[in-house]
Amino acid sequence: MNDVIIIGGSFAGLAAALQLGRARRKVTVLDTGLPRNRFADRSHGVLGHDHKLPQDILTEARLQLTRYPTIKLVSARAESVSGAIDDFSVLTSDGESLRARRLILSYGVADQIPAVPGFAEGWGSSTCLVPIATALKSPAGIGASSGPAQCRTTTSGCTTTGPTR
């Protein structure tokens, strides 16, 4: 039985696995290989990794985790979770049933791309929903509205959106 199963193997999930591995806990990380930042051309705000490719950061993190024999990385999706504290069961997309005393849910979010011409095509490069992640490295004018969503281009070339109410 695992001490912990982590569902989601991007930055947060791997950081949790690192700390648990250092504490000699038996950990399994389930990851689909589809991190939210897979469309980004660079990652920002990660100490020691600013402006690196997100995939390069993940590759380096996974390599570092190989030093810890109690951490197992599994390329699979968690299809179902059942149980309670001290006895969770996770069924993977490969049909494997895993058990753990604790769970960490680190599977992120799914972006809802608005039906704005050109928005999806620029996703991760010239279009972003989180201006602080990309736009603040260049001077930019970021505005907000209280009405329907509005798109505008900043001086950094990043399209930003306003609230939908």
What can you see in these coordinates?
The structure is a single chain. The protein contains three helices and eight strands. It is of the alpha/beta class and 165 residues long. It has two domains: 2-105, FAD/NAD(P)-binding domain; 113-165, no CATH class. The strands form two sheets. The protein has a six-stranded mixed β-sheet, with helices on one face. Strand 2 (27-31), helix 2 (54-65) and strand 3 form a beta-alpha-beta unit. Helix 1 packs parallel to helix 2 (54-65). The protein is globular, with a radius of gyration of 19 Å. It starts with a strand and ends with a strand. Mean pLDDT is 80; it is low at 139-146 and 153-160.
CATH superfamily of the largest domain: FAD/NAD(P)-binding domain
- Based on secondary structure, the structural category is alpha/beta
Q: What fraction of residues sit in β-strands? A: 25-35%
Spatial shape: globular
Ends apart, CA distance between termini: 47 Å
| H/E element order | EHEHEEEEHEE
Strand tally is 8
Helix content: 10-25%
Q: Are there runs of 5+ residues with pLDDT below 50, and where?
A: 139-146, 153-160
Rg from alpha-carbon coordinates: 19 Å
Here the CATH topology of the largest domain equals: FAD/NAD(P)-binding domain
Q: Per CATH, which architecture of the largest domain?
A: 3-Layer(bba) Sandwich
Mean pLDDT: 80
